[in-house]
């Protein structure tokens, strides 16, 4: 029996499906990050010690990063066994209901200790879904891309991060400007969590319209599916998963320093008004979004590894001037600081998905790329707001910058060690 070729996916449909999905997922993820700083310490934890409540809230924020590798392993298994399309739909349907449930959750005053426990469970669900979302979206783009445009196609799901952040931060900004504090704490913060259900339906509709990627169809045609993708990744591709994880650490650490930590520190220790700081962060997201396509173009022209090495060296230098730029009572300088940090973030984030996809064969690519990315999230982001806050409180902001520089040095070594591995995924 003659095997039929996979139906071609129109370029616009591919890029829309990868971009819309990650935008929704990151919107859901970031509204939690913003609420974890502005709302949750007051609502879901004991008010007897505000500083402790903030740290406990940041701890639940970190929980999702430990769930993400489990999501990567779970959804990666099915993505490499059953296909990219169905798995992406399932990942979206895991994260969406978890986010809506958070928006409906009663506070500590109503149900006591059950409030933070349920919050942690739903946050875990968010992490589980995003762990399966990112890798599939990247593969949907790169496995349909021409050989000379892998990084360009692969940057579309990456654009979901700044767009999702702008949507989430913009929503919270509008709410804080149109409501008094009492109404915002009482019910206003819940609006974006519940409204995200509408975005999930849009994402579902778009993804159900796409067909399977050519690379996965080849795996099926050649009977090359792995029986246990997770085991194969760690046993047969140990170097790839190790270097891929270490090469991605700084991407996560920089992002959550420039978003969650700076928002918390800037509005508390440096006493910037929340509204002013949220505006600065939204402006910085434009520089993040600018860096992503720029880095993709350069990566396709000069190589992904070279682009990532250059961006990482820039981040190392940025860490050394971190404290000098992030100061109280200097809003313009703080704006420059945030924009510069997020532009560097865009330069490293743009090609990283395509680079990780390129170090694993198609039969375990969903699992391998997803695990490398999510394990880096644990090492580079899960405890970053907590550790950075502790360093800043005890030693000053200079040591937060050192923290970033040391992590970037580790990433640089991993990138140098992975030269030659970050190739075209079709090769």
Automatic annotation (TrEMBL):
Transmembrane spans: 14-38, 58-79, 86-105, 111-130, 151-175, 187-208, 243-265, 277-299, 306-326, 338-359, 366-388, 400-417
Protein localization: Cell membrane
Gene3D superfamilies reported in the protein's UniProt record: MFS general substrate transporter like domains
Domain of life: Bacteria
Domain Major facilitator superfamily (MFS) profile, chain residue ranges per copy: 14-426
Keywords: Cell membrane, Membrane, Transmembrane, Transmembrane helix, Transport
InterPro entries: MFS, MFS_dom, MFS_trans_sf
CC annotations in GO: plasma membrane
Protein topology in the membrane: Multi-pass membrane protein
GO molecular-function term, one example from the UniProt record: transmembrane transporter activity
A Pfam family it matches: MFS_1
Protein's UniProt name: Metabolite-proton symporter
The organism's taxonomic lineage, starting at the top: Bacteria, Pseudomonadati, Bacteroidota, Sphingobacteriia, Sphingobacteriales
């Amino acid at each position: 029996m003659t095997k039929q070729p996979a139906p071609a996916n129109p370029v616009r449909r591919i890029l829309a499906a990868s971009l819309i999905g990650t935008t929704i997922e990151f919107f859901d993820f970031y509204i939690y990050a913003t609420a974890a700083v502005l709302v949750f310490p007051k609502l879901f934890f004991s008010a007897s010690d505000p500083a402790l409540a903030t740290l406990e809230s940041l701890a639940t924020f970190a929980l999702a990063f430990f769930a993400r590798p489990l999501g990567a392993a779970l959804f990666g298994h099915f993505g490499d066994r059953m296909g990219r399309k169905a798995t992406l739909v399932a990942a979206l349907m895991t994260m969406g209901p978890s986010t809506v449930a958070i928006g409906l959750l009663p506070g500590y005053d109503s149900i006591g200790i059950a409030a933070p426990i349920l919050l942690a469970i739903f946050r875990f669900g968010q992490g589980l879904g995003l762990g399966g979302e990112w890798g599939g979206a990247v593969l949907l783009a790169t496995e349909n891309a021409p050989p000379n445009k892998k990084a360009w196609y692969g940057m579309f799901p990456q654009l979901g991060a700044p767009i999702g952040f702008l949507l989430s931060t913009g929503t919270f900004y509008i709410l804080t400007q149109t409501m008094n504090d009492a109404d915002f704490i009482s019910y206003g913060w819940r609006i974006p969590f519940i409204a995200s259900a509408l975005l999930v339906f849009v994402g579902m509709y778009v993804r159900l319209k796409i067909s399977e990627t050519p690379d996965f169809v080849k795996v099926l045609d050649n009977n090359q599916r792995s029986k246990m993708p997770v085991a194969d990744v760690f046993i047969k591709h140990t170097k790839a998963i190790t270097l891929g994880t270490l090469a991605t650490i700084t991407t996560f650490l920089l992002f959550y320093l420039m978003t969650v930590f700076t928002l918390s520190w800037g509005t508390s220790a440096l006493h910037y008004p929340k509204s002013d700081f949220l505006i600065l962060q939204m402006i910085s997201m434009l520089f993040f979004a600018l860096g992503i396509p720029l880095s993709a173009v350069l990566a396709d022209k000069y190589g992904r590894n070279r682009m990532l090495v250059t961006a990482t060296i820039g981040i190392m230098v940025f860490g050394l001037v971190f404290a000098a730029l992030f100061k109280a009572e200097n809003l313009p300088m703080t704006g420059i600081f945030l924009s510069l940090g997020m532009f560097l973030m865009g330069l490293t984030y743009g090609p990283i998905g395509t680079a990780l996809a390129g170090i694993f064969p198609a039969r375990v690519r969903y699992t391998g790329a997803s695990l490398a990315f999510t394990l880096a999230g644990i090492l580079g982001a899960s405890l970053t707001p907590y550790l950075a806050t502790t360093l800043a409180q005890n030693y000053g902001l200079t040591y937060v910058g050192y923290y970033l520089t040391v992590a970037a040095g580790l990433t640089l070594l991993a990138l140098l060690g992975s030269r030659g591995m970050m190739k075209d995924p079709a090769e």
